[in-house]
Amino acid sequence: MTAPGSTAPVLAPQVLGRCRALVRPALAEAVGRLHPWVGEMAAYAFGWCEVGGTPAPAASGGKGVRQALAVLGAEAAGAPERAGVAAAVAVELVHTFSLLHDDIMDGDAARRRRPAVWKAYGTGPAVLAGDALFALAVETLAARPGGPAAVRALSAALGDLVRGQADDLLFAARPWTGPEQVRPDEYRAMAERKTGALLGCAAALGSVLGGAAAGTSAALDRAGRHLGVAFQIVDDVLGVWGDPAVTGKPVHGDLRERKKTFPVLVALRTPVAPRLAALLESGTDPAAAAALIEEAGGRSAALAEARRHLTAVEAALTAVPLEAGAAADLRSLLDFLVRRDL
Questions:
Q1: Closest C-alpha to 264, from 236, 284, 242, 243
Q2: Contact status, residue 230 vs residue 200, Cβ threshold 8 Å
Protein backbone atom coordinates (compact mmCIF):
# COMPACT_ATOMS: atom_id res chain seq x y z
CA MET A 1 0.00 0.00 0.00
CA THR A 2 1.34 3.46 -0.77
CA ALA A 3 1.62 6.15 1.84
CA PRO A 4 -0.81 9.08 1.61
CA GLY A 5 0.41 11.52 -1.00
CA SER A 6 3.05 9.08 -2.26
CA THR A 7 3.27 7.23 -5.57
CA ALA A 8 6.13 4.93 -4.53
CA PRO A 9 4.97 1.28 -4.48
CA VAL A 10 5.81 -1.07 -1.64
CA LEU A 11 7.06 -4.60 -2.28
CA ALA A 12 4.63 -6.85 -4.12
CA PRO A 13 4.41 -9.42 -1.26
CA GLN A 14 3.16 -6.63 1.00
CA VAL A 15 0.59 -5.63 -1.61
CA LEU A 16 -0.58 -9.24 -1.84
CA GLY A 17 -0.80 -9.49 1.94
CA ARG A 18 -2.82 -6.29 2.24
CA CYS A 19 -5.28 -7.44 -0.41
CA ARG A 20 -5.67 -10.90 1.11
CA ALA A 21 -6.41 -9.36 4.51
CA LEU A 22 -8.97 -7.04 2.92
CA VAL A 23 -10.74 -9.79 0.98
CA ARG A 24 -10.55 -12.77 3.37
CA PRO A 25 -13.52 -11.81 5.64
CA ALA A 26 -15.85 -11.30 2.67
CA LEU A 27 -14.61 -14.50 1.00
CA ALA A 28 -15.14 -16.50 4.18
CA GLU A 29 -18.62 -15.03 4.57
CA ALA A 30 -19.50 -16.06 1.01
CA VAL A 31 -18.18 -19.62 1.47
CA GLY A 32 -20.14 -19.82 4.73
CA ARG A 33 -23.38 -19.58 2.72
CA LEU A 34 -22.69 -22.88 0.96
CA HIS A 35 -24.00 -26.30 1.99
CA PRO A 36 -21.76 -27.34 4.94
CA TRP A 37 -20.15 -30.28 3.12
CA VAL A 38 -19.57 -28.27 -0.04
CA GLY A 39 -18.33 -25.39 2.09
CA GLU A 40 -15.80 -27.71 3.74
CA MET A 41 -14.44 -28.73 0.34
CA ALA A 42 -14.21 -25.07 -0.65
CA ALA A 43 -12.39 -24.23 2.60
CA TYR A 44 -10.02 -27.14 1.95
CA ALA A 45 -9.36 -25.81 -1.55
CA PHE A 46 -8.54 -22.38 -0.11
CA GLY A 47 -6.16 -23.97 2.39
CA TRP A 48 -8.22 -23.02 5.43
CA CYS A 49 -8.89 -26.53 6.74
CA GLU A 50 -7.99 -30.19 6.47
CA VAL A 51 -10.29 -33.01 5.34
CA GLY A 52 -13.01 -33.21 7.94
CA GLY A 53 -12.97 -29.49 8.66
CA THR A 54 -10.12 -29.28 11.18
CA PRO A 55 -8.48 -25.85 10.78
CA ALA A 56 -5.24 -26.03 8.80
CA PRO A 57 -2.15 -25.34 10.94
CA ALA A 58 -0.80 -22.93 8.35
CA ALA A 59 -2.36 -21.29 5.32
CA SER A 60 -1.55 -23.43 2.27
CA GLY A 61 -3.56 -21.50 -0.29
CA GLY A 62 -2.16 -19.49 -3.16
CA LYS A 63 -0.76 -15.99 -3.16
CA GLY A 64 -4.11 -14.42 -4.04
CA VAL A 65 -2.86 -12.83 -7.25
CA ARG A 66 -6.25 -12.50 -8.93
CA GLN A 67 -7.99 -11.05 -5.90
CA ALA A 68 -5.14 -8.54 -5.56
CA LEU A 69 -5.57 -7.54 -9.21
CA ALA A 70 -9.28 -6.99 -8.55
CA VAL A 71 -8.63 -4.77 -5.52
CA LEU A 72 -5.85 -2.79 -7.19
CA GLY A 73 -7.75 -2.43 -10.47
CA ALA A 74 -10.72 -0.99 -8.60
CA GLU A 75 -8.51 1.37 -6.58
CA ALA A 76 -6.61 2.48 -9.67
CA ALA A 77 -9.90 3.27 -11.43
CA GLY A 78 -11.13 5.28 -8.44
CA ALA A 79 -13.90 2.77 -7.65
CA PRO A 80 -15.12 2.33 -4.05
CA GLU A 81 -13.25 -0.20 -1.92
CA ARG A 82 -16.38 -2.37 -1.58
CA ALA A 83 -16.46 -2.76 -5.37
CA GLY A 84 -12.90 -4.06 -5.34
CA VAL A 85 -13.65 -6.51 -2.53
CA ALA A 86 -16.79 -7.89 -4.20
CA ALA A 87 -14.89 -8.27 -7.47
CA ALA A 88 -12.02 -9.98 -5.67
CA VAL A 89 -14.36 -12.46 -3.98
CA ALA A 90 -16.03 -13.34 -7.29
CA VAL A 91 -12.72 -13.74 -9.11
CA GLU A 92 -11.21 -15.87 -6.35
CA LEU A 93 -14.27 -18.12 -6.34
CA VAL A 94 -14.10 -18.55 -10.11
CA HIS A 95 -10.35 -19.15 -10.07
CA THR A 96 -10.71 -21.87 -7.45
CA PHE A 97 -13.62 -23.40 -9.38
CA SER A 98 -11.37 -23.59 -12.44
CA LEU A 99 -8.55 -25.21 -10.45
CA LEU A 100 -10.85 -27.90 -9.05
CA HIS A 101 -11.99 -28.84 -12.54
CA ASP A 102 -8.52 -28.47 -14.11
CA ASP A 103 -7.00 -30.91 -11.62
CA ILE A 104 -9.64 -33.48 -12.58
CA MET A 105 -9.15 -32.96 -16.32
CA ASP A 106 -5.35 -33.09 -16.04
CA GLY A 107 -5.30 -35.96 -13.55
CA ASP A 108 -3.20 -33.87 -11.15
CA ALA A 109 -3.29 -35.59 -7.77
CA ALA A 110 -1.72 -32.73 -5.78
CA ARG A 111 -2.33 -29.01 -5.46
CA ARG A 112 -0.05 -26.79 -3.34
CA ARG A 113 1.67 -29.79 -1.80
CA ARG A 114 -1.59 -31.37 -0.60
CA PRO A 115 -3.95 -33.89 -2.20
CA ALA A 116 -6.14 -32.16 -4.77
CA VAL A 117 -9.80 -31.85 -3.81
CA TRP A 118 -10.80 -34.71 -6.12
CA LYS A 119 -8.22 -36.99 -4.48
CA ALA A 120 -9.23 -35.93 -0.97
CA TYR A 121 -13.02 -36.05 -1.43
CA GLY A 122 -13.69 -37.87 -4.70
CA THR A 123 -14.21 -36.78 -8.29
CA GLY A 124 -17.98 -36.25 -8.10
CA PRO A 125 -17.82 -34.15 -4.93
CA ALA A 126 -15.00 -32.04 -6.39
CA VAL A 127 -17.07 -31.32 -9.51
CA LEU A 128 -19.99 -30.36 -7.28
CA ALA A 129 -17.80 -28.04 -5.19
CA GLY A 130 -16.50 -26.36 -8.33
CA ASP A 131 -20.02 -25.84 -9.64
CA ALA A 132 -21.05 -24.36 -6.28
CA LEU A 133 -18.16 -21.90 -6.32
CA PHE A 134 -19.07 -20.74 -9.82
CA ALA A 135 -22.71 -20.21 -8.82
CA LEU A 136 -21.60 -18.34 -5.70
CA ALA A 137 -19.39 -16.03 -7.79
CA VAL A 138 -22.31 -15.09 -10.03
CA GLU A 139 -24.52 -14.51 -6.98
CA THR A 140 -21.84 -12.31 -5.40
CA LEU A 141 -21.71 -10.04 -8.43
CA ALA A 142 -25.44 -10.01 -9.15
CA ALA A 143 -26.16 -8.71 -5.66
CA ARG A 144 -24.01 -5.58 -6.13
CA PRO A 145 -24.90 -2.30 -7.83
CA GLY A 146 -23.62 -2.64 -11.37
CA GLY A 147 -24.04 -6.40 -11.08
CA PRO A 148 -25.49 -7.10 -14.55
CA ALA A 149 -22.50 -5.51 -16.31
CA ALA A 150 -20.10 -7.34 -14.00
CA VAL A 151 -21.80 -10.69 -14.64
CA ARG A 152 -21.56 -10.08 -18.39
CA ALA A 153 -17.83 -9.34 -18.03
CA LEU A 154 -17.26 -12.47 -15.97
CA SER A 155 -19.28 -14.61 -18.40
CA ALA A 156 -17.23 -13.36 -21.34
CA ALA A 157 -13.99 -14.14 -19.51
CA LEU A 158 -15.21 -17.62 -18.63
CA GLY A 159 -16.20 -18.27 -22.23
CA ASP A 160 -12.66 -17.41 -23.28
CA LEU A 161 -11.20 -19.52 -20.48
CA VAL A 162 -13.17 -22.56 -21.66
CA ARG A 163 -12.06 -22.01 -25.26
CA GLY A 164 -8.45 -21.71 -24.13
CA GLN A 165 -8.69 -24.84 -22.01
CA ALA A 166 -10.23 -26.73 -24.93
CA ASP A 167 -7.40 -25.65 -27.25
CA ASP A 168 -4.80 -26.63 -24.65
CA LEU A 169 -6.29 -30.11 -24.30
CA LEU A 170 -6.43 -30.54 -28.09
CA PHE A 171 -2.82 -29.38 -28.51
CA ALA A 172 -1.64 -32.47 -26.61
CA ALA A 173 -2.93 -34.77 -29.37
CA ARG A 174 -1.36 -32.84 -32.26
CA PRO A 175 1.98 -33.92 -33.77
CA TRP A 176 5.30 -32.28 -32.94
CA THR A 177 6.06 -31.50 -36.59
CA GLY A 178 4.30 -31.28 -39.93
CA PRO A 179 1.26 -29.37 -41.23
CA GLU A 180 -0.78 -30.13 -38.09
CA GLN A 181 1.83 -29.03 -35.56
CA VAL A 182 0.87 -26.32 -33.08
CA ARG A 183 2.02 -22.89 -34.22
CA PRO A 184 3.33 -20.21 -31.81
CA ASP A 185 0.49 -17.85 -32.80
CA GLU A 186 -2.05 -20.54 -31.85
CA TYR A 187 -0.31 -20.88 -28.52
CA ARG A 188 -0.48 -17.10 -27.91
CA ALA A 189 -4.23 -17.15 -28.54
CA MET A 190 -4.64 -20.14 -26.21
CA ALA A 191 -2.62 -18.48 -23.43
CA GLU A 192 -4.58 -15.23 -23.69
CA ARG A 193 -7.81 -17.15 -23.27
CA LYS A 194 -6.80 -19.77 -20.73
CA THR A 195 -4.65 -17.54 -18.50
CA GLY A 196 -5.15 -13.96 -19.64
CA ALA A 197 -8.95 -13.83 -19.73
CA LEU A 198 -9.39 -14.29 -15.99
CA LEU A 199 -6.45 -12.01 -15.15
CA GLY A 200 -7.95 -9.33 -17.39
CA CYS A 201 -11.36 -9.82 -15.83
CA ALA A 202 -9.82 -9.59 -12.37
CA ALA A 203 -8.12 -6.30 -13.14
CA ALA A 204 -11.26 -4.80 -14.71
CA LEU A 205 -14.10 -6.21 -12.63
CA GLY A 206 -13.87 -3.83 -9.66
CA SER A 207 -13.92 -0.86 -12.01
CA VAL A 208 -17.00 -2.31 -13.72
CA LEU A 209 -18.79 -2.71 -10.38
CA GLY A 210 -17.67 0.79 -9.36
CA GLY A 211 -19.13 2.40 -12.47
CA ALA A 212 -15.82 3.50 -13.99
CA ALA A 213 -15.69 4.63 -17.60
CA ALA A 214 -15.90 1.80 -20.11
CA GLY A 215 -12.56 2.80 -21.58
CA THR A 216 -10.87 2.42 -18.20
CA SER A 217 -12.32 -1.05 -17.62
CA ALA A 218 -11.34 -2.10 -21.14
CA ALA A 219 -7.77 -0.90 -20.64
CA LEU A 220 -7.45 -2.81 -17.37
CA ASP A 221 -8.84 -5.93 -19.03
CA ARG A 222 -6.37 -5.52 -21.91
CA ALA A 223 -3.47 -5.14 -19.48
CA GLY A 224 -4.50 -8.31 -17.64
CA ARG A 225 -4.78 -10.31 -20.85
CA HIS A 226 -1.28 -9.32 -21.97
CA LEU A 227 -0.05 -10.09 -18.48
CA GLY A 228 -1.58 -13.56 -18.80
CA VAL A 229 0.38 -14.34 -21.96
CA ALA A 230 3.62 -13.03 -20.42
CA PHE A 231 2.93 -14.96 -17.21
CA GLN A 232 2.26 -18.20 -19.10
CA ILE A 233 5.38 -17.89 -21.24
CA VAL A 234 7.56 -17.14 -18.21
CA ASP A 235 6.00 -20.20 -16.56
CA ASP A 236 7.00 -22.21 -19.64
CA VAL A 237 10.61 -21.04 -19.34
CA LEU A 238 10.68 -21.91 -15.65
CA GLY A 239 9.15 -25.31 -16.43
CA VAL A 240 12.24 -26.17 -18.47
CA TRP A 241 15.09 -24.16 -16.94
CA GLY A 242 13.79 -23.01 -13.54
CA ASP A 243 15.40 -23.84 -10.21
CA PRO A 244 13.31 -26.60 -8.55
CA ALA A 245 14.03 -25.07 -5.14
CA VAL A 246 12.27 -21.90 -6.30
CA THR A 247 9.58 -23.24 -8.65
CA GLY A 248 8.64 -26.35 -6.69
CA LYS A 249 8.75 -28.27 -9.97
CA PRO A 250 11.28 -30.96 -10.99
CA VAL A 251 14.02 -29.84 -13.35
CA HIS A 252 12.93 -30.21 -16.99
CA GLY A 253 9.49 -31.16 -15.67
CA ASP A 254 7.56 -29.80 -18.65
CA LEU A 255 9.78 -31.73 -21.05
CA ARG A 256 9.28 -34.98 -19.14
CA GLU A 257 5.53 -34.39 -19.42
CA ARG A 258 5.91 -33.61 -23.15
CA LYS A 259 4.13 -30.29 -22.88
CA LYS A 260 3.89 -28.13 -26.00
CA THR A 261 5.18 -24.94 -24.41
CA PHE A 262 6.20 -21.76 -26.19
CA PRO A 263 9.99 -22.38 -26.21
CA VAL A 264 9.39 -25.88 -27.58
CA LEU A 265 7.06 -24.66 -30.33
CA VAL A 266 9.55 -22.01 -31.43
CA ALA A 267 12.40 -24.53 -31.56
CA LEU A 268 10.26 -26.98 -33.55
CA ARG A 269 10.06 -24.43 -36.36
CA THR A 270 13.85 -24.42 -36.84
CA PRO A 271 16.22 -26.95 -38.49
CA VAL A 272 16.61 -28.85 -35.18
CA ALA A 273 12.96 -29.94 -35.37
CA PRO A 274 13.52 -33.61 -36.40
CA ARG A 275 16.08 -34.24 -33.65
CA LEU A 276 14.06 -32.36 -31.06
CA ALA A 277 10.82 -34.13 -31.97
CA ALA A 278 12.53 -37.51 -31.57
CA LEU A 279 13.87 -36.52 -28.15
CA LEU A 280 10.51 -35.20 -27.01
CA GLU A 281 8.67 -38.26 -28.25
CA SER A 282 11.01 -40.67 -26.48
CA GLY A 283 11.16 -38.63 -23.27
CA THR A 284 14.44 -40.34 -22.42
CA ASP A 285 16.81 -37.34 -22.34
CA PRO A 286 15.10 -34.11 -21.25
CA ALA A 287 18.46 -32.45 -20.56
CA ALA A 288 19.49 -32.94 -24.19
CA ALA A 289 16.11 -31.64 -25.34
CA ALA A 290 16.49 -28.53 -23.15
CA ALA A 291 19.95 -27.88 -24.61
CA LEU A 292 18.64 -28.28 -28.15
CA ILE A 293 15.72 -25.90 -27.50
CA GLU A 294 18.11 -23.28 -26.14
CA GLU A 295 20.50 -23.77 -29.06
CA ALA A 296 17.58 -23.23 -31.47
CA GLY A 297 16.66 -19.96 -29.77
CA GLY A 298 13.53 -21.17 -28.01
CA ARG A 299 14.44 -19.74 -24.63
CA SER A 300 15.54 -16.33 -25.91
CA ALA A 301 12.48 -16.09 -28.18
CA ALA A 302 10.18 -16.90 -25.26
CA LEU A 303 11.73 -14.23 -23.05
CA ALA A 304 11.51 -11.69 -25.87
CA GLU A 305 7.85 -12.57 -26.37
CA ALA A 306 7.17 -12.09 -22.65
CA ARG A 307 8.86 -8.69 -22.77
CA ARG A 308 6.70 -7.65 -25.73
CA HIS A 309 3.57 -8.44 -23.76
CA LEU A 310 4.89 -6.54 -20.75
CA THR A 311 5.34 -3.52 -23.01
CA ALA A 312 1.72 -3.95 -24.10
CA VAL A 313 0.64 -4.09 -20.43
CA GLU A 314 2.31 -0.74 -19.76
CA ALA A 315 0.79 0.77 -22.91
CA ALA A 316 -2.68 -0.26 -21.75
CA LEU A 317 -2.16 1.22 -18.28
CA THR A 318 -0.87 4.54 -19.61
CA ALA A 319 -3.73 4.87 -22.10
CA VAL A 320 -6.24 5.89 -19.40
CA PRO A 321 -6.11 8.08 -16.27
CA LEU A 322 -5.52 5.99 -13.12
CA GLU A 323 -5.06 6.83 -9.45
CA ALA A 324 -1.29 7.22 -9.13
CA GLY A 325 -0.71 5.35 -5.86
CA ALA A 326 -2.83 2.33 -6.68
CA ALA A 327 -1.46 2.22 -10.23
CA ALA A 328 2.07 2.14 -8.81
CA ASP A 329 1.16 -0.80 -6.58
CA LEU A 330 -0.50 -2.50 -9.56
CA ARG A 331 2.67 -2.10 -11.64
CA SER A 332 4.74 -3.46 -8.76
CA LEU A 333 2.55 -6.57 -8.62
CA LEU A 334 2.59 -7.10 -12.38
CA ASP A 335 6.37 -6.86 -12.49
CA PHE A 336 6.66 -9.33 -9.60
CA LEU A 337 4.47 -11.87 -11.37
CA VAL A 338 6.51 -12.09 -14.56
CA ARG A 339 10.08 -11.63 -13.33
CA ARG A 340 10.24 -14.77 -11.22
CA ASP A 341 13.94 -15.54 -10.92
CA LEU A 342 14.67 -15.23 -14.61
A1: 236
A2: no
